[in-house]
């Protein structure tokens, strides 16, 4: 029976998992996760990265043979003394659960296994509407935008069968004669896709949506579950790692400097001077890190791999958290704001809800695209951020007081991630998505949410890609004839 020695180098992960609340359950997430032993070396498999894809890949191999895990599943403790809460800097939701006995979202199953506290979010009907003049019920326009999106994601299948090129979502709306014209309609369109429609492939968006939310297309369900667990969302990764991982297999707080590879294996060099060798390293870095020059591959990756990496986008998705003495805003879960400048602090979500964090006085606003990049340039100039955010909130509520606390992450500037999650722009070429996950030289493997054709950008995409890569590595070790070609 073939046995594997597995090492997990949590590369570029000095703050993995963020802050974990010190409650009765907090230690259960990190049980037996105290680093011990000498750095792993001369291994059969070396996994680079400790997020969802990395941990699930390690677990899958184990089943066949910063000092906490989590990756972009990161938390922060937010709020003034006496009113603090563990909030999610990154993923908040399990998107899609299970319909009857149909396909189940593996992250949903993992959350249930580790007793993660969640509440269902109604992100499309439990809403309030505002614009630059204050409250304004444009729910009819919102319903029309929902219908436009649902009609738009049918079109790619027809075009695909006819061998027609991909379109961006904005072009699709123009083609259908339903392009938004007013600020209110533009805000509704923005809400459907998170980013500017001109930056979103309609083909990729259709696959992404249907395979997650539409059970008839093989998806899970249209249910969104919000994590409210004060151990943090990353607890499910940490707790899962604790079920199988020997910490002598882990090297924390290292930054990969160079990855040298050839047909015989790979040597990974860290900035702290470690040289780690392996037959089969699995790279689970984000697409943003792969696109940067932070990690040098020697020799350079082949042109087909570099083209695939360059083709996907790694935009920034920024949540700005604000805490007030008491709640004064809408009782719905979401407030949509339409500004004369599209994308200007548009999506407001309340956490001061009976089944979330009642009495917390916390609300957050999400920005993406150009506005998120602008905030990155401000480099956490909290005074300026607060001025701009409060200008919008006071258009919604003129008597809104100043917040007592404010905080936001910087995903784009963070060398651990270089962005929030992946997104395919038009014209999307499925071959690029396939090539993202294809191993290089028969030894250098890749996995992560970005390598998923169906589930890019989703946490379950990272889970399934890590699992799939690990199964392929295991098959290769057991039977060399099943190894990929040396390309």
From TrEMBL:
Q: Which cofactor does it need?
A: FAD
Keyword Oxidoreductase appears in the UniProt entry: yes
Classification via InterPro entries: Amino_oxidase, FAD/NAD-bd_sf, Flavin_amine_oxidase, Flavin_monoamine_oxidase
Q: What domain of life does the native source organism fall in? A: Eukaryota
Q: So where does FAD get bound? A: 256
One Gene Ontology MF term: oxidoreductase activity
Q: What's the Enzyme Commission number for this chain?
A: 1.4.3.-
> Which UniProt keywords are present, listed alphabetically?
FAD, Flavoprotein, Oxidoreductase, Signal
Catalytic class of the enzyme: oxidoreductase
- Offer one example of a GO biological process linked to this entry: polyamine catabolic process
Q: Where is the signal peptide?
A: 1-21
Q: Where is the Amine oxidase domain?
A: 52-473
Record bears the keyword Flavoprotein: yes
Q: Which Pfam families match?
A: Amino_oxidase
Task: Report the family membership.
Answer: Belongs to the flavin monoamine oxidase family.
Protein name, entry field? Amine oxidase
């Amino acid at each position: 029976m073939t046995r594997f020695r597995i090492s997990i180098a949590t590369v570029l992960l000095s703050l993995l998992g963020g802050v974990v609340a010190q409650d009765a359950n907090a230690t259960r997430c990190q049980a037996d996760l105290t680093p011990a032993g000498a750095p792993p070396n001369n291994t059969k498999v070396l996994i680079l990265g400790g997020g969802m894809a990395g941990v699930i890949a390690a677990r899958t191999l184990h089943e066949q043979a910063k000092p906490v895990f989590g990756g972009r599943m990161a938390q922060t403790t937010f709020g003034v003394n006496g009113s603090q809460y563990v909030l999610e800097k990154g993923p908040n939701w399990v998107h899609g659960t299970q319909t009857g006995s149909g396909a189940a979202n593996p992250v949903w199953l993992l959350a249930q296994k580790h007793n993660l506290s969640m509440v269902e979010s109604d992100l499309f009907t439990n809403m309030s509407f505002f614009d630059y003049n204050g409250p304004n019920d444009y729910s009819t326009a919102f319903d029309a935008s929902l219908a436009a999106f649902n009609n738009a994601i049918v079109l790619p299948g027809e075009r695909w069968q006819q061998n027609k090129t991909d379109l961006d979502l904005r072009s699709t709306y123009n083609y259908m004669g339903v392009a938004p014209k007013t600020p209110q309609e533009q805000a509704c369109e923005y809400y459907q896709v998170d980013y500017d429609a001109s930056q979103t492939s309609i083909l990729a968006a259709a696959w992404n949506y249907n395979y997650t939310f539409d059970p008839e297309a093989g998806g899970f369900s249209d249910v969104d579950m919000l994590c409210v667990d004060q151990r943090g969302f990353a607890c499910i990764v940490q707790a899962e790692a604790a079920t199988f991982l020997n910490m002598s297999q882990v090297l924390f707080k290292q930054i990969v400097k160079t990855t040298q590879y050839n047909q015989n294996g790979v040597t990974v060099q860290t900035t702290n001077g470690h040289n780690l060798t392996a037959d089969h390293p699995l790279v689970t870095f984000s697409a943003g890190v792969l696109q940067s020059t932070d990690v040098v591959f020697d020799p350079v990756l082949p042109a087909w791999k570099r083209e695939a990496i360059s083709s996907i986008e790694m935009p920034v998705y920024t949540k700005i958290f604000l805490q007030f003495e008491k709640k004064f805003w809408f009782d719905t879960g979401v407030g949509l704001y339409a500004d004369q400048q599209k994308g200007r602090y548009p999506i407001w979500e309340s956490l001061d809800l009976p089944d979330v964090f009642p009495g917390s006085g916390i609300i957050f606003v999400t920005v993406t695209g150009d506005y998120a990049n602008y905030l990155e340039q401000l480099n956490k100039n909290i005074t300026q951020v607060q001025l701009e955010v409060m200008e919008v909130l006071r258009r919604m509520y003129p008597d809104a007081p100043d917040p007592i606390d404010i905080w936001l992450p910087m995903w784009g500037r963070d060398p651990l991630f270089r962005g929030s999650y992946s997104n395919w722009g038009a014209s999307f070429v499925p071959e690029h998505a396939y090539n993202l996950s294809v191993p290089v030289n028969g030894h250098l493997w890749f996995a992560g949410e970005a390598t998923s054709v169906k589930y890019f950008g989703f946490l379950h995409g990272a889970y399934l890609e890590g699992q799939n890569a690990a199964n392929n590595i295991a098959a290769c070790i057991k039977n060399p004839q099943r190894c990929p070609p040396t390309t």
